[in-house]
Description:
The complex is a heterodimer.
Chain A: H1 5-60, H2 64-75, E1 80-87, E2 92-95, H3 110-116, E3 131-135, E4 141-150, H4 153-157, E5 169-178, H5 180-231, H6 245-303, H7 310-338, E6 345-347, H8 349-366, E7 369-375, E8 382-384, H9 386-404, E9 409-420, E10 440-446, E11 449-458, E12 461-467, E13 477-478, E14 490-491, E15 500-505, E16 512-517, E17 523-527, E18 535-536, H10 538-543, E19 546-555, H11 562-565, H12 584-594, E20 598-604, E21 608-616, H13 619-626
Parallel strand pairs in A: 7-9
Antiparallel strand pairs in A: 1-2, 1-5, 3-4, 4-5, 6-8, 9-19, 10-11, 11-12, 11-14, 12-13, 15-16, 16-17, 17-18, 19-21, 20-21
Helix pairs in contact in A: 1-2, 1-5, 5-6, 6-7, 7-12, 8-9, 9-12
Chain B: E1 6-9, H1 13-25, E2 30-33, H2 36-40, E3 50-54, H3 62-72, E4 78-82, H4 87-95, E5 100-103, H5 108-118, H6 124-128
Parallel strand pairs in B: 1-2, 1-3, 3-4, 4-5
Amino acid sequence: MRTRIGLQIVLAVGLVTALSIGLLATVTLRTHRQEMIAQLTRNADLLSETVKRSTEDYMLENRRERLGRQIEAIGRDQRIERVRVFNKQGLIVFSSDTSEVGHALDKQAESCFTCHAQDRPLTKPPVHDRTRIFTTESGRRLLGIVNPIQNQPACTTAACHAHGPDETMLGVLDVTVSLEDVDRQIAASRTRIVGLAIGAVAVSGLLLWLLSRRLVSRPVAALTAGTRRIAAGDLTTTIPATGGYELGELARAFNAMTARLSEAQRQLTQADKLASVGRLAAGVAHEINNPLTGVLSYASLLLERPQIDPELRADLEVIVRETKRCREIVRGLLDFARQTPPRHQPTDLNDVVRRAVTVVMNQLQLRHVALGLDLADDLPAVQADPSQMEQVVVNLLLNAADALGERGGTIRLASRQARLEPRGHEPIRRATCPKGCDLLDAATHVGGLAAIRILREHGGREWAFFLDPVYGRFSHVSTEPCEEGVVAPVTCPKCRVSLVESDSKCERCGASTFAICGPDDEPIRWCTRTGCHFTRWEAREHRGAAPVVEVSVEDNGRGISREHLAKIFEPFFTTKGTRGVGLGLAVTWGIIESHGGMIEVESEKGRGSRFTVRLPLAAAEQARDAA
Amino acid sequence: MNECDVLVIDDEPVVRDAVRRVLQAHGLRVATADDATSGLSHPALATCRLVLCDLMLPDRSGSEVLREIRQRYPGLPVVVITGYATRDEARRALEAGAVDFLAKPFEAQELMQSVQRALGGGPATQEEGA
């Protein structure tokens, strides 16, 4: 279906334009015609007056022949059709057309009718009433004007004594002129005006068509094409926000809608993926646990025999240990799929690390990997699930080995106690607006953590903005390209309440600040100016650096590219092709999150990566640390 | 007097056999059934001291079996076995009247600890057996 809206607009507006211009042309022509005829009437009247004056003397002197010749002479003028004089009885006394002299005219005839319509005839009606326009039998259009000849004292006292003193009207002078010239001029005007009108309609129509194409048809066609692409499932589609204000607005709204749709679909897909993992894990757990039950039961039963060969006992212990590891892996998968909370207990991470190393040692040796251990003495206990943390360390070690590839390399595994400055490290795990709307968006991750979603506005635009959820880090993500250095106020995306603070100024640039409510409703503020790196979490800064235990796994392998770095903790993201399902780091991430800890990756392409896991101290250790 | 101490209901032969072997090694007499129907109609049900029942059986769910046993033999303890190692699963089974919960896979010692707790006895069973 092609868009017809442009054509419809052009037709509608074109019709209205044509009608208006036509009306205007008609009115103009009519006025013009009336003016021309009025002009001609005035001229004819003047002419008839002139004729009357110029023949006055002949009349007074009763020189009828001279008068007749004079009238004939005047009648020869090309502009004058006919000049004639009637007496009071309607008899043509003189005429430029000598053949009609002596004929009588009925007083009801058209040239007499004006004055003789009433019983008592008018003596000098206004010029308009003395004028008549008529068509001859030969089809020529003429304008006639009558001019009454009134009695004067000179007429009654003249030598001829032709007229008595009691008469008021002596006769009528009738001058007829041709309308040919006027008609020709009017026809010329009409042609000109109609031509101009057609031209104007054509030009405005063309202009309208071009404008509608540019402002309506193309944007509408783009919209139609866009909707069709979306209908076909392409949610990455955007359309240029050109066109008139409303259409531009529509295009922007359309793009925003598409972005939301795409985001919703992404979330659904993610949820679907996770649900599939859940089903898969449950199925695997059920199927694998049955054979494992056999292995574990028989092996452990054999170990119960008192007189058992020590060599056999060692082998059986390996079987039992490895089967239990399988059990933990399956449970880890289930934990990931079902987000089961870990069974926390005060744990020495060095023990966890050593157990993990024994588990993977054989594999590392087979793959020519040298492992350097650097474990700190007197490591304080952390609050953790030992088997889950062991899984974390095993995962990180196996990933490091994979990164080293076939030629092998070196992995450094270290543990230490550290004090963690909140700035640049502390994740903001709770974020609400003053009215209590949750601002954390689990579907959008920045640096692997659920981002803080806010709305920014500038220059009449409004767009979603994702704050880096790590305090003091500024890897914010903007859904629209956003100019640096402009003050863009912030509102809650759910209830639209303003987050801008009236009583606080940015300590770097002086612009106003905005704040969200962090954990325990402590305010965390940022600068409203885009690109300004100011943030303050007053209460957290006041508490100072937190004691943590760090475990880091560092390899000198191939490293991780920047674009991969953002995705490595996502379920099903893998760079190992068919050798990986992309769950290892997702499970690792989930475990560390559920421990209230954090994991950090530093990597340089071609030079290696370092994963650092940080866990908070156990409650007793924290108390000791504080004391 | 009793012909059997423990009735094991599980559709998976390897689990059934392994459990039987462990229990027999500890001197218990064992009867087995491979689905809910045969388990519930097993003559040993009336005389045994403990039922070990898988939560996922081919014909009926283990919780239904558990409910029916609780109705017919209120004093007979039931320990449920499942491949789903989650707390929810355990909580539901315990709420439905199971005395304990065994997550597959388990070691012989774990199985025996659970069985002995359920039988309310210490090593007495050991003496009763051969």
